[in-house]
Amino acid sequence: MGGPLLTLTGVAKNFGEVEALTHVDLEINPGQVIGLVGGNGAGKTTLLRLMAGVMEPSNGSILFGTKPVSTMRAKLGVVPESTGLYSRLTAWENIRYHSRMYGISDEVAWNRVSHFANRLEITESLSRHTKGFSRGMRQKTALLRALAHGPDILLLDEPTAGLDVTSARTVRSLVGQLRDEGGTVIYSTHHLAEAQQVCDRIIIVHNGTIRADGSPSDLLEMTGDTTLENAYVSLTSDKARPRNEDKSKDGRLAKWWRRFLTGSTPELKEVGEDE
Amino acid sequence: MNNSWRFISTIAKKEIIEFVRDWRTLIALIVIPLLIFPALFIALPLLLQSEAAELDALELDVIWQGDINEELEMAFNESGLNVTFEAMPGGLNNLSDTGEEDDRLRTEGIEAIFRLSQNETEWRFSILYLSTSEASNEARNRILIDISAWESDVVNGTLVEAGLDPETTLDPVIWDGDVSSADAATKGEQAGLVLSMFIPMVIAIWTASSAIQPSIDMTAGERERGTLEALLCLPCSRMQLLAGKWLAVATITSAGVAMQIGGLLFAISFLASSSIIGMPTISLTSMLLLLSAVIIFAIMVVAFELALAMKAHSVKEAGSLLGPAILFIIFPALFTQVINLDGIESWWFAIPLVNILLALRELLLDRIIVEHIVVWLLSSIFYAGLAAWFAARQFKREDLVASIS
Fold first, then answer.
1. A73: which residues sit within 8 A by CB, 6+ positions away?
2. Of B18, B229, B236, the CB nearest to A80
């Protein structure tokens, strides 16, 4: 396949009246590590879920090669923010469960996993139940699980969030290794410094739109700033939209009942110095 | 192996492995059902028997007030009643007037007070007792049995004195032969009737209640633990995911119901060996139809519960939804037990839940009525399809991808 791996054309995503993403055009080419950078509620996770084919866009299209991405999920490896490990299964059983779903034999999956497990220093923990795993161990296991079937694109949602310095470094190092081996990784993060360190290309997402897309030096050139942090601030200078925290789909009655039983916030009065 | 089946079986296998690794739920859903009927039918009667034997062996203290009858006194002694005689207290309206005696029954270790008074033509008596005390009730029962025997002797004596035969005078209309041999129903059919009174209810309630916990765990639980998003990223469709989870819940539920029925059959065979109840005789056709009815019922209930649990926004909410939903099974189950099956109209077999319960009752009686079978089979398949459609709708919801935690 010579062209882009993933092509997003005029993609928009609405949740009810909320526009989570507006008119996104992107091309993801093979052999790149691409950082999706943005604040909370910017639309990074929604964009990743659309690329992973678990959500359908409200408008536009997302193609893997020439086919809708939702029909090509076998070509993708996804590590959601929550990692999604089953605590009553061992790390290897978690990995094996997913690889079997991809139609990969246990032997092939084990060979692939062993290769990366050494690198992540997790080989000895593969036979342990994941219940007692630290956040770092969980993240590493989820990474192995996503790699076991040899995906064309790896989608990582905040892979270093909540990790200690050493674990975060190991994860970043693995991503670097994947790039060196010609893999394609899409990597969402809050941290600009991390994106700069790991990614060849940075996509800045703000208020559901793509504000910039290019290499770190492209972004500096685009804004005329000297640091990426300043460039990010210039590109996202408009106020971040309020995040819709209450995403519950409760009916009217349930919402009314909750409001009815919720006490009102006391009105604040100015207090004089002598009070 | 085709892809669909690979997805479904892999999902179901993983769910079952996870389930059996939690020993608490395993005990609750598999071991307890196995033991419940043997405990109910074997251990409980044994316990009751030993309690009754213990009560029989007790010597009970009784106060006898008023006139004395030697024959009765002798009978009391033989019944293990230790009698103390007292004069009849004064100022009573009648012999049942407890007067000041209730305190003695409560505090002095006396089990009963027997009062007897004779006038010119008859004897009058009463027994003061404490209905909340088992020993007091036992004393009262022993006294009543002795009085009944004594009264019978008195009546017979009077009849003989009058030159009458007590047997033909007191019982002039007699059932000829053995009452039980006049019943055309075989022992097996009688056993079927007994079982039809509670097996449908047990199956219905247990299927519905044992599916609740795994249904919640595999849907709202997955969302809360954040594992559903990773699962939805896999190359299987939502329908295959639903089918896999359905298969897992149905397998767990079926294992629970099978254990319960196994326990029940063991208890019945134990009772049959003591000739308390016969083994039910059910034809192969009825057995196959019974199995079909249970499977269709399980499809419907499990799909419905999975859908409700998936509709919920949290494990807590799923519990609040599914807990009361069990009432929709219990009420029809109780209601169906009192419906008379003789000449029942066919439309009863089209009512959701009621149809399966009635079908189970009929089949346990080995009644194969084609019209009824067609109605319950078609209507049940329709309802099961409806439940599966509702579940499919819930599983296709886009917001499932967002974990709740």
1. A52, A53, A54, B233, B234, B235
2. B229
Q: Is the confidence at residue B337, as pLDDT, over 50? A: yes
Across the interface, do B231 and A84 touch by the CB < 8 Å criterion?
A: yes
**ipTM given for this complex:** 0.85
What is the identity of the amino acid at B379? Answer: S
Q: What is the pLDDT of residue B344?
A: 92
Position B227, amino acid: T
Do B227 and A76 lie within an 8 Å CB cutoff? no
In a domain, A259, yes or no: no
CA distance B405 to B304: 24
CATH code assigned at A172: 3.40.50.300
Cβ-defined contact of B234 to A98 (cutoff 8 Å): yes
Give the mean pLDDT of chain B: 88
A206 assigned to some structural domain: yes
Instruction: Name residues whose C-beta falls within 8 Å of residue B67's C-beta, 6 or more positions apart in sequence.
Output: B116, B117, B118, B123
State whether A86 and B3 contact (CB < 8 Å): no
DSSP assignment of B354-396: HHHHHHHHHHHTT---HHHHHHHHHHHHHHHHHHHHHHHHHHT
Question: What residues contact B354, with CB distance under 8 A and at least 6 apart?
Answer: B332, B335, B336, B339, B348
**Residue B3 pLDDT greater than 90, yes or no:** no
Q: Indicate the pairing of strand A59-64 with strand A67-68.
A: antiparallel
Residue-wise pLDDT for B136-179, tens only, equals 999 999 999 999 999 999 999 999 999 999 989 998 999 988 88
Give residue B404's pLDDT.
Answer: 47
Is residue A265 included in any domain, yes or no? no
Copy the structure tokens of residue B334.
Answer: 């109780």
Specify if A147 maps to a domain.
Answer: yes
Question: CA of B8: which chain A residue's CA is closest?
Answer: A101
> Model confidence at B79, in pLDDT bands (50, 70, 90)?
very high
pTM: 0.79
Give residue A17's domain range: 6-242
Question: What are the residue boundaries of the structural domains of chain B, listed by start?
Answer: 3-47+186-401, 58-173
The chain-wide mean pLDDT, for chain A, equals 88
Query: Which H, E and C letters describe A159-175, residue by residue?
Result: CCCCCCHHHHHHHHHHH
**pLDDT at B405 exceeding the cut of 50:** no
- Domain covering B58-173 in this structure, CATH number: 3.40.190
Model confidence band, residue B403 (pLDDT cutoffs 50, 70, 90): low
Residues of A in contact with B17 (CB under 8 A): 88-89, 93
Q: Rounded to an integer, what distance in angstroms lies between the CA atom of residue A24 and that of residue B163?
A: 115
Q: Which residue has the higher pLDDT, B65 or A248?
A: B65
Give residues with Cβ within 8 angstroms of A70, minimum separation 6: A53, A54, A56, A62
Token pair, residue B203, equals 């199956």
| Total number of domains constituting chain A | 1
Q: Counting one residue from A and one from B, how many pairs have CB atoms under 8 Å apart? A: 80
pLDDT given at position B181? 86
Closest chain B C-alpha to A274 CA, distance in angstroms: 46
Strand locations in A17-121 (E): 18-28, 33-37, 59-64, 67-68, 76-79
CA A73, CA A55: separation in Å to the nearest integer?
12
Q: Considering only A39-48, A239-248, B230-239, which range has the smallest mean pLDDT?
A: A239-248
Best of A18, A67, A76, A82 to mutate (most B CBs within 10 Å, chain B): A82
Tokens of B193: 């009737």
- Per-residue pLDDT for B280 more than 80? no
Please compute, for residue A152, the number of CA atoms within 13 A of its CA located in the half-sphere on the CB side.
16
Q: List, edge to edge, every strand of the sheet that includes A6-15.
A: A18-28, A6-15, A59-64, A67-68
